[in-house]
Fold this sequence. Notes:
This protein has 11 helices and 2 strands, in the order H-H-H-H-H-H-H-H-H-H-E-H-E. Helix 1 (3-36) runs antiparallel to helix 2 (42-75) and helix 9 packs antiparallel against helix 10. The chain has a two-stranded antiparallel sheet with strand order 1-2. It is mostly helical. Helix content is 72%, strand content 5%.
Amino acid sequence: xxxxxxxxxxxxxxxxxxxxxxxxxxxxxxxxxxxxxxxxxxxxxxxxxxxxxxxxxxxxxxxxxxxxxxxxxxxxxxxxxxxxxxxxxxxxxxxxxxxxxxxxxxxxxxxxxxxxxxxxxxxxxxxxxxxxxxxxxxxxxxxxxxxxxxxxxxxxxxxxxxxxxxxxxxxxxxxxxxxxxxxxxxxxxxxxxxxxxxxxxxxxxxxxxxxxxxxxxxxxxxxxxxxxxxxxxxxxxxxxxxxxxxxxxxxxxxxxxxxxxxxxxxxxxxxxxxxxxxxxxxxxxxxxxxxxxxxxxxxxxxxxxxxxxxxxxx
Length: 314
């Protein structure tokens, strides 16, 4: 398959996949807002604002891609050199550049949310020192990408801008992968401890495969690595991977936010030991206490268990 044909197929497949993922995001966003409408507090306002900004930014990106596809395949179908040539020449048009800026802002927001979740899971600021440094690096590299593309009309697939873009996405993928690995490690180890102390049923509620995937934003991280590899080898399929990566940049954190506000996510008390005391007196008349009537003394049971709080505060 020629490069031009491969490029057009990649753009088409990427647009189709991102339309599907946008539909998922649409459902998740309105589900989130429906739940938040019945809640109160600072965290409610934060998650409503954060989700709305993410939804706005991803919508901006999707609209620019729809407009570009219409211009490339319909309005300018007789363009000299064909659609592939039109893509090469006009991929840096102002509205595409505007959509790219929205993506960079969205990525910084998503990465910041991941870093905060990493802090909550570990209940420590020291564990996020390196990820925070990488976040600052992505901020600087993202600015350089926009600086190198805006005035010259360059793209992230060629020229100086491609070098900055590769550095930017490398730093971002490294940040995503490290935070995802740190969160997964913490949840797996803690889940094993809970399973040993309280059994499979309780451990499965908070530490099953789905919860680990959502909490660690794993789909976002994996799609970022796939896009980075395709971009690094200069494959035309990188456009399809880019579309999936950008949509998961919004869908994955939206899933996490939904899990948090539903009280199913890890919070700052999930990894702490909390003591509970249960006293059963033989003088009680309840069915439970009658089984202890043969004992002359009160029965005192004290245990130390994991009791995750369902508080949804950040």
